């Protein structure tokens, strides 16, 4: 039976494995060529004699997927024969390697120009050659679940166990670590006096162990991050498998007839088998990670070190400048404050190396101070002072200059002048916490601060003040807020020794007050009733609002609406309901001249003025408007004294006018075309004959008025 074949499309090339293969053979000195300039799916590798002996041939043709049958191309994949040979060679040659980077920069001029002291000079200089090690750890990370994946991950560490990026940028100098490793050379062997070969000099073993442990922590973290994406790919496959199992077993359980399995034994067997298979699939899809160290390299980097002694005359500081002889990178002294490398450095008064941004000058002693040693701005003048020249304020904790800090005379603490204030009375400066707020406002309306020696507690309001006076009645001292001047005799008295008159609300001392014979209240003046001649205070004997006579409560009446006092002689009553009304507040009817209360006040529907109820008919017209047809006097337009009025002047020419008058108003009634009418009301009692109402009515409005609508 013939086997049925299916043509498959080329799989996508593993870019990581392809890049590793190219770097692998390039680093070992082989010549690597690609079949196409835009594709690395096939590589042609011309091997060196050492590699040819290991691989058993002089040339290799490599491919990264098995989609091209036939030919002499060999597959490079995890677990393939060529890849295993590559890893075996690495296990032999690169499990641990010690190499040295070549020296490219031999000129010491850049090392000498690396720093520029601003306030110091060079007193001594010592140059020496040193070596610094960089370590490259290559880890094989294996991810196992329902499939298997492997990854090669390289970590670069320096001798201080700090992580280095594959490409490090600093001071515009690029250091390619991979290229540096490719350019590295073998360290020449050294022999002792006996002719024995000495091993390369390495850092102490404890340091190497610490660096390796730190590198493994970084590799583990990288694997944890990659597990997130791998698990995201595994879960859909797990769900698909579990769904297939659940569907299959649920179908098997549903097909069991209850009559054939009355005790449910077969059903329970299938359910137990389902749970066992689910557990197996979950375990098969569980992601397991293995981190294995494939090899590591100790790369010795040559350094040129300059120990420079700087002196300022009072301070002597030794700084160190290093230059990487391979990359030319300079390592300058770091700032004591911010930790950044600096070219222009300054030595402060304590011998600290400081960059330009962290350099300060004390405003008092003019010494150079770094930010770590500390200069603080005075809270009063803002000048920066060092620790020796400034004093810490006990109140706010800020450092103030010597001019703006002084001991408080009350507590003795050193307090800055921002936390102190002068007493408004005696001018002594002290802590604000000891001062009290004067309850008496100053001339500007503010309240000043006064010290405890100048503050007097007022017995009247129990507040503190420096503005006090003596009561002429009792001899006690009160604040100016509590003292008043008697409106009768002009003496100054305090609380309890004066009384406010209930009428004029003025203060009067007890000497000027007399007892009212009617209500027995104290008052400064008595009035006599003009009718019965009884004497009383202003509350018992009040003046009439109409005639200004003084009357007592028996011969006068307080109006309930307006509160005015009206004597019995001036009382008026409503002409309609005969209730008493205030003649000062109640208007008289402009037609009949009688008083009318608010309930008996009615407005005219035509002129809009208010009259008493008796003078307005049931149709809504007042007696004056109703008499226009009978007694109205025709008025020519030239005789209209209101024709220049702002609202009435536009309608004056369009109507024939008649005039009727009452006690107060002149009412002009105009008849126009289409039965339209107009009304203008003029108050002839006012000085300038004020126009009070301007109204226009259409024929429809007149009809509604006649019908009472």
Tags for this entry?
single chain; about 700 residues; alpha+beta; eight-stranded mixed β-sheet; about 35% strand
Summarize the structure.
With 709 residues, the protein is α+β, with helices and mostly antiparallel strands. It is elongated and about 150 Å long. The chain starts with 14 loop residues before the first helix and ends with a helix.
Word description of this protein:
The chain has 709 residues and is α+β, with helices and mostly antiparallel strands. Among the domains are: 15-93; 435-511, no CATH class; 513-570, no CATH class; 580-707, no CATH class. The strands form 22 sheets. Strands 5, 7, 8, 9, 12, 15, 16 and 17 form an 8-stranded mixed β-sheet that branches. It has a 5-stranded antiparallel β-sheet with strand order 52-53-54-55-56.
What profile does the largest beta sheet have?
8 strands, mixed
Structural class: alpha+beta
Q: How confident is the prediction overall: mean pLDDT?
A: 84
Number of strands: 56
Please work out how many helical segments DSSP would assign.
10
Q: Which spans of ≥5 residues are poorly predicted at pLDDT below 50?
A: 1-11, 167-173
Protein topology:
Blueprint: H1 15-27, E1 31-36, E2 39-46, H2 49-55, E3 59-63, E4 74-75, H3 81-93, E5 96-100, H4 109-112, E6 116-117, E7 121-144, E8 148-158, E9 163-164, E10 167-170, E11 173-176, H5 177-183, E12 185-186, E13 190-191, E14 197-198, H6 205-254, H7 265-284, E15 288-311, E16 316-324, E17 330-331, E18 344-347, E19 353-354, E20 359-361, E21 368-370, E22 376-377, E23 384-385, E24 391-392, E25 399-400, E26 405-407, E27 414-416, E28 420-422, E29 429-431, E30 436-437, E31 449-450, E32 456-457, E33 464-465, E34 468-470, E35 477-479, E36 484-485, E37 492-493, E38 498-500, E39 507-509, E40 514-515, E41 522-523, E42 527-528, E43 535-536, E44 541-543, E45 550-552, E46 556-558, E47 565-567, E48 572-573, E49 580-581, E50 601-603, E51 610-612, H8 623-626, H9 628-631, E52 633-635, E53 656-661, E54 665-671, E55 677-683, E56 690-697, H10 699-707
Parallel strand pairs: 3-4, 5-15, 6-18
Antiparallel strand pairs: 1-2, 2-3, 5-12, 7-8, 7-15, 8-9, 10-11, 13-14, 15-16, 16-17, 18-19, 20-21, 22-23, 24-25, 26-27, 28-29, 30-31, 32-33, 34-35, 36-37, 38-39, 40-41, 42-43, 44-45, 46-47, 48-49, 50-51, 52-53, 53-54, 54-55, 55-56
